[in-house]
Structure formats: structure tokens, C-alpha cells
Specification:
heterodimer; A: about 170 residues; alpha/beta; GMP Synthetase, Chain A, domain 3; 2 domains; 4-stranded mixed beta sheet; 3-stranded mixed beta sheet; B: about 280 residues; mainly alpha; Ferritin; 11 helices; Phenylacetate-CoA oxygenase subunit PaaI (chain B)
Amino acid sequence: MVSVLADVRHARSVAEQVPDPELPMLTLADLGVLRDVELTADGTVVASLTPTYSGCPAMAEMRADVAARLRDAGYGHVRIRTVLDPPWTSDWITPEGRRKLAANGIAPPGAAPRRAAGPVPLVLTPTRRTVDCPRCGSADTEETSRFAATSCKALWRCLACREPFEYLKEI
Amino acid sequence: MSDDHVYLSLAEGHEDDSRWAYGTGFEDPLHGVDTAVPAGIDTVLLAADCLALADDALVGAQRLAEWTTRAPELEEEVALANIGLDLLGQARLLYARAGQVDGTGRDEDAYAYFRDPAEFRNVRLAELPRGDFAFAVVRLLVMSSWRLAHFERLASHPDPVLSAIAAKGVKELTYHRQYAAEWAVRLGDGTEESHRRMRAAMDQVAPYLGELFTAHDVRDEVVAVLRQVTHAAGLPMPVYRPLPGSGRSGEHTEHLAPLLAELQSVARAHPEAAW
């Protein structure tokens, strides 16, 4: 039974190394999209993935990539599960993932908003968020658009070094 | 379906590449999700709920997509397209769920491309023509506030798939509403022209509000949000009288058929195509 344990650990490490199709500097584990890797009694490796956004067009790609890597690593029976609950949050991006984002010019997200049960409040007063420029580190930055090339990012600019940069939104 | 490679899994069963029409990566959006329906759930009702919410999202997404190349600024174009993409994602999940529980086994394409206007169950506000940017803002404000309030409740629905779709949607709808609310305040409290256009947009949307509240009992919450926004924007609250009929029973305006004709044209011209 030792080999089973070793196997699941190995399978997990293989799945963890699969890069995200949209943010290739991150692995699916860094992004928090890979939720679990298990080995069933009949020897099937079951990897669980969760989508970041409902409309994320990269989900099929991720499933295919994880399955292919596991098969290449010698696992004959692979199944990919999609987990919708609990929904993905940017809080699941690992410290290593955050470091890699910043190193690649993308400001990592702050803590995701927490809310109590019941109606979601609408806040119209400006909420001050500080996002440090991933290039020069200045906190003197501003949002130019809450929407960018992918669902998960916003556009910001640094007022100190004058460079635009992307920011991975907290959700 | 094979998980090995997107291309291979799509080409599976029909090796002829020419049948590979357009787009990539589309497959069952609930692929690999536990799809059992818990005992005691009325599946007819559940399927109808999923279908109606999917239709609101699909038709809404189509109207938002029309803003591509037409928005006042590139940033707004990207924003509206992103919001549309979220809604499209919600629609795909909901269609997939509807097909699992209504016993027909239909996939998302069967619902989106091969139903006629009278079979669509979206509320009429979703299908009204694109209008100007003020109208886009007001419609998005109303639709996202309404959908958010309903999804927030659906997050505790006994069907685990619908509740998960809703819980995920809550996060997305929260920033859709935020975007619309901020623009509503900016335009309502902006220039004379922007204020005038916002008032006109409010008047256009008003007759369709009653239908929303008949469909889902979230009136108090939506009215509270509209009150908050109109107050900050210096706009009057929309006054509405219920309009007869409802998109929820397949009664639509004359605007839905042309929208669907465009949306469905390629799929209907090539019904055998796979993508």
C-alpha cells in the first residue's frame, strides 16, 4: 500500500506542474484551480479542477492538459472532475503564485471581499484600494479599467514610473 | 469524450477535419460534474428555472456583444464584452443543467441554436434593442441587480448544481452591477445631455420592470438598489405599470426574432457542424 500513497503523491506533483493556459507563468496549483488529486480503488487518477470564472474559455484546455500530463507520466486511467462548489476565489492563489505574478509584471490580488449572508450591499462611495506597481513598487497607482484582456484582470497605471500594468482582481 | 487533447476530443467520432467548423474548446460545460438530482426535487420546475435564467443570460450577452466596436471608449467595450462573456458562461452551465434534468438530454447548442423565439423564456427587457450607452447602463443596472438578488437566494437551492452555478454567479453579478451603478451615477449626475439620456433610458426600461418582479420575488431588494443609485445620480425613480404578457411564457417583443436569427444563422446553415 506504500506504493499507492507514493503514487497519489507523484500524480499530484505531475498535475501541479501543469501551467495555466492564460497565465503560463503560473501552474494550475499556483492559481488554486487544481483542487484535489485522488487515486480510486480501481487505480484511476481523479484530478479535480474548478473554473475561475463561469465564462472562462480555458477550462477545456486545462482539463485536456492535466489529463495529457498524467497519461504521459504513465497513469493509464485518468478522470477529470469539475468542481463548482465552493466557487474559486483569488485567495486560493498561493504565495508562490503571487510572487510569480509580480515578477511577471502583474500585480497580485488583495484579499477577496467577505460578505455576510443576505443581500449583497452596493457601495457607491469610492473604495480606496492600494495596489503596488509591480515594476517600481510605488503605491501611487490608479485603476484605468476594471476590465482587461481576460476576465480575471484589471488595467492599472503607475503614476510614479508612468507604466501601465495589469492587476489580478480579487474575487 | 476524451480529455487527452482539446482538438482530439472535438474531432473524436468524426475524423473529417472539414466538419470542424469554428471556435475551439467547446464541450459540455458541466463535464465531470456530479449531475445526480437529489430526491424530492421537482425536475420539471428545476429545468424550467434553469432554462429561463439561461435565456436571460444568452440574450443579454448577445446584446452586450453588439457593443463590440461601438462603445464610446475601448475600456467600455472591453468591459461590456467581459460582462457578456460571464453571462454566456452562466448560460452554458444553466443550459447543460436544464438538459440533464428535463429528461431530453439536449445540449447547450440545442437550446441556444435550435429553438424558435416563442420557445425562449427570457424576460423582454433582455431582448430590447441595443439603444444608446445610457440605455445599456440602465438595462445592465436593472438586469444585474435583479439577477444578483435572485442568484443570492438560489445559492441555497436544494439542487447542488444550480446552487453552485448561482454562488459563482453572485460574485460576477456583483461587479456587473457595480460597473453599471457607477456609470449611472456618472451619467445621471454628469452633463445636461447625459442626464437627459439617462432619464430617457429609465423611461424606456420602466414598463418592463413589473415582469421582472413577477418572475422572481426580489422586488424590495431591487427597488432599494435603484433608489440608492437614482438618489446618488440625481435621477427620478422609474414609475412603472405592469405591461401585459411575459417573456417567461414565451410572449416576446418583435425584437427577439431578429436577434435569434443572427445568433442562430451559422448553426442552422450548418446543422451538422461540430465545434
